[in-house]
Design goal:
The complex is a heterodimer of chains A (149) and B (108).
Chain A: E1 5-14, H1 19-31, H2 38-59, E2 66-74, E3 78-85, H3 93-96, H4 112-119, E4 122-128, E5 132-140
Antiparallel strand pairs in A: 1-2, 2-3, 3-5, 4-5
Helix pairs in contact in A: 1-2, 2-4
Chain B: E1 2-8, E2 11-20, H1 22-39, E3 43-54, H2 56-70, E4 75-81, H3 86-92, E5 99-102
Parallel strand pairs in B: 2-3, 3-4, 4-5
Antiparallel strand pairs in B: 1-2
Classes of the chains: A alpha+beta (149), B alpha/beta (108).
Chain lengths: 149, 108
């Protein structure tokens, strides 16, 4: 377990689209111990869905590969989600993160990273072409008194 | 996840249901498009009252249907959008493309 994480879970699965809902459910189940608000949980589920979909649609475009999902809980009710693949990588991360930019075709909105960025408090993307991509995002959950907002 | 389609007086209503993600979007798209291409409605209403979750694949679904309807001058209406989906719809600028009618909490 990485230093000073209070709790951690790691799960890996093949990049089949049926696992998009599994990934959302797995993160939500793990995050439940922090008793997040409905809105916070919805934000995290949406961001995870985007990151995992990127692996399926882009990283492993014409193939099936392994996606590793790691979720850590830190002091101060911080939830850190990492989505890692060993796929094709991103040539230009900055460009890929521009809203509406997509190489996914007509039915993709090009909003994956924009959603992760605005639904989470922090987003960090590292990528090496031919080696893979690692998306790390953090959500700071409100205190219990903030429930129901 | 699924869709129920109703045609009434030139309006095609697609009652969406469950979670809309990349995995399920293709089937929804194919069903809606098949009916729309056949009937060429002037209005396509995407009813989100039964949608519990959606990510940007849902946005792609709306934008793609907007493009298709534009081919014959038809319009798209997003109806009964649950409050928790507002954030995503705003981020995507969907209101610039079509009418969005907000729904009530707890409808889904």
């Amino acid at each position: 377990m990485r230093t000073n994480a209070i709790n951690e879970m790691k799960v890996s699965f093949p990049s089949t689209s049926a696992n998009e809902s599994f990934a959302r459910a797995a993160v939500a189940a793990f995050a439940a111990q922090l008793d997040p608000t409905v809105d916070e949980l919805s934000d995290v589920r949406t961001a995870v869905s985007e990151a995992v979909t990127n692996c399926i649609v882009h990283a492993y475009r014409d193939t099936i590969g392994e996606i590793t999902l790691t979720v850590r809980i830190y002091e101060g009710r911080r939830l850190v989600v990492q989505v890692k693949d060993k796929g094709c990588g991103i040539e230009d991360v900055e460009k890929a993160m521009e809203p509406l930019f997509t190489t996914g075709g007509e039915e993709r909105a090009g909003l994956g990273f924009a959603v992760m960025e605005s639904f989470m408090n922090r987003l960090h993307v590292t990528s090496r072409p031919g080696k893979g991509t690692c998306v790390t995002m953090e959500k700071r959950l409100s205190g219990r008194s903030g429930h129901g907002r | 996840m699924g869709v129920q389609l109703q045609m009434k007086q030139g309006e095609l209503i697609a009652l969406l249901d469950g979670e809309i993600d990349h995995h399920g979007a293709r089937e929804l798209r194919e069903e809606i498009d098949a009916a729309a291409q056949r009937t060429k409605p002037r209005l396509l209403t995407l009813d989100f009252s039964g949608v519990q979750f959606m990510d940007s694949s849902g946005v792609g679904l709306i934008m793609g249907r907007y493009r298709m309807m534009s081919e014959w001058g038809g319009e798209v209406c997003v109806a009964n959008l649950p409050p928790r989906l507002e954030k995503l719809v705003s981020l995507a600028g969907i209101r610039e493309l079509c009418t969005v009618i907000s729904g009530k909490e707890g409808q889904a």
